[in-house]
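Problem: given the chain below (425 residues), write out its structure.
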Amino acid sequence: MLMLLRTARHVDRTGQKPLTAGELAQLVGTTKAQILAYENGHQVPDPPRLRDLAEVLGVHPRSLMNREREPLWTVADLRRASALRAQDLVDSLGISPKSYRRFEREGIVPGRRPRFLDDVSLELGVRLAVLERAIDNVPQVSVRRAQAKVLIERMVERYVDQPGMWKGPAAEDHDLLELANLYGRPPQRTRRVLTHELGELRQIMVRLKREQVIAEYDRDPNRQQQAYSAVERWSYIQAREVASIPRRLEDFHRAAQPSDTWQVLVDLHDASCRPEGPWAPSILLGREGTMQLLPSSLVRQQFFTDMPAAQLTTAGLKHVQRFRELYAALYPGIRRPRNTPGRGNAAPRPMPTADFFFAIRGRPERFVLPPFYFDKLSRKAARREELELRVSPTLTVKLGPARPSATFEQEPSPSDDDHEGHPAQ
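Solution.
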């Protein structure tokens, strides 16, 4: 690729004679032999040299990489394709060298850094999906999944079929401690999540054993035959679910949010704040520091006049739907997402009604109050009080006591246009 760009592309851009290997070497401060070694694939240029070559040839550093192998690139390959050293990312991300090495070599995302993957993808200039694929390509990730599979299968045999009240794996279980070490997460955190996963398998086992009893002891041959088929079906489901746990835990630990940012995701989900839907005022969702921690891949934030508001992205909605049960196990004291029709047996909590929507004059967007404010409104209304919610320095939402309805008052401000359509920071 380097030879092709040195000869053909340079001519296309300047109309001059193709660069010789010696001329290119002189321009980037190396030897002709070194350039030929790069071109023949005997050596790989380090990031600073790659950056110099790309600048001389007028291309992106990624163009000098072997693009045929791009689907197999690891995080280190992506970094080199961006002409960055590991230390460059350590400095720009504000992370310790040890934590970054662990991320690049093992695919373990540092804890308590909810925006980490978004920040890395921004520094590398790639989409988040490309970065996630590169993480999956890290050899140690595949090794970890294989090791986790063995550990989980042993704990399934040890705990799922155990009679008595369900307690999950023992806190001192050796396999549990090893699994926590594999994922780089505290044992208590790993135990909570795994207790949920094994508990789901236990419920599958209950159904399987029920059908086994019918298949073996029922007097009706037709019911026996149906039960035999059900046993095969539940056995398949059980095996499939066991096999899916390592990947699900890997993805969850990679993308899991702290409790405060997870609560914001839940409140946006319950307010139906998703693409093409309404927005929720940020001040009603969380503290400013919490809102700043939210990954832009999961939550879109924007100013409307001087009111910051948020809504889930498509990826954010999928994140809530996919990991809601694991979060419930991890953070039992946090409000859980509202049940949606057709999901689970619990009755769904009510959707926000039109009474709780409001608008800003001159803007087409709709805004909604998060459902957890409904209870506060009900208590205020019972005392025949008016509830006022200040959603920005100049905007107030008033909810009357006689009928749950929202009116919007906008105080004029010379800076109303300052934030018009600007993303929230």
